[in-house]
Description:
With 498 residues, this protein is α/β, with parallel strands linked by helices.
Amino acid sequence: xxxxxELFVYNSIQRKKEKFEPINEGFIGMxxxxxxxxxxxxxxxxxxxxxxxxxxxxxxxxGYKVRxxxxxxxxxxxxxxxxxxxxxxxKAENLxxxxxxxxxxxxxxxxxxxxxxxxxxxxxxxxxxxxEQIEMVQDIINNGYGYEKNGSVYFDTVKFAxxxxxxxxxxxxxxDELMAESRSDLKNxxxxxxxxxxxxxxxxxxxxxxxxxxPWSVGFPGWHLECSVMSTKYLGxxxxxxxxxxxxxxxxHENEIAQNVGACNCQxxxxxxxxxxxxxxxxxxxxxxxxxxxxxxxxxGDSPHVSQGYDPMVxxxxxxxxxxxxxxxxxxxxxxxxxxxYKRLMQAWQVLQKLETTGAGNSEDEDVTxxxxxxxxxxxxxxxxxxxxxxxFELVPKIxxxxxxxxDVNQLSADALRLLKExxxxxxxxxxxxxxxxxxxxxxxxxxxxxxxxxxTELRQGARENKDWSTSDKIRDSLAALxxxxxxxxxxxxxxxx
Length: 498
Ligand code: AMP
Ligand code: ZN
């Protein structure tokens, strides 16, 4: 198995860029925290999953065999008001909690398809792994880092921090700050030894809907536990990459590490990758703040935040223009500019596909080869998609000049032209995951429209030659109803859109 190039990634836990070295040569295990399926996903969630989709696609492109695990959080977790999200959703919609979970899992999958993200290799659900979660709670208790109180089990953060010295390493918080900040399961604060301790099993109240038997009580697992359990089950005790949005660093990922170390005495992964937040009007896009735009609203334009509808590929292009670890502010102007950029790239690809060379010379080769190499190099530098994309855009005027004859395409060797075509198609489609909606029948696709109108006028001409006036008139009238006017002249029939 050969890997195309060395990769460097920013490892959040080390706070620096490091050379990526997989545990098993040629293979990568990657776990990404998936959605909580109690309501529709918003574009912020989409940004995180698109970012990891590009990372996944690029790892595969480099030649790695990747096992990509992304979970579905379908166990409700306590909100500050003491109710869990899944039950809240179920009561509001008059559905069973598992109906709520299924409904929004389906919706999430639809969105992932629309944004052309690849499916993960495994998509485990928290509710399908309750037994394993109970086992991990038991391991944590056996190792002395968990204690039971009134049917709930808590993780002893102070003992863990004293013995292991690593608690807070990922989030950069020290135990005193953690104590002060701890907000989760507020109503159970009095049961805990320390405010920073967190629940790994919670006793359920009688009216709690999602609950299971355990050695401690009828209850439900703590939120952080499912990811520790499912990543271990499918990728091993220590795997290569763990990812998620950077809002999950604390408490979710910090506590995941504590659980894994507490249960197995090993770190869950070697590299932590965190994507940054999608903002709207300078604030994090978040459902609880009402500061969201849904994918449907983006596509239909039915939102005060956009002046028109945008194709999902325009949004993908928009996201590609910013590094995954930087914040990204969504604005109508930026989307409009992305729409233009996306079309320019696709048009260049359509031109490039048709270019041919006699290979008479090679004076154009050096520039093209250098830029194609840089695309790969940029992506190997912590998945720098915006830089890689800008290299492709450096090639666009060249491609157009070959077509228009300002530059001689025959000064490109056959190998260099092949590299150019492979780089464009490999990165635009395989790595960046864009689709060419212009050729596939997008609204302003001139080629498809020309082809269809050519076919229709030909059929009408045949009808006229056969003196089939009713068919000929029907075609003309139906097109007129679509505001397309036909004009019969001595050189044939032309058409215009009013
Ligand atoms: P949730 O369903 O809330 O657990 O979120 C699913 C994923 O979306 C997590 O990885 C979050 O970090 C991520 N996420 C939530 N809000 C945003 C946002 N505004 N921008 C980017 N990612 C987000
Ligand atoms: Zn998680």
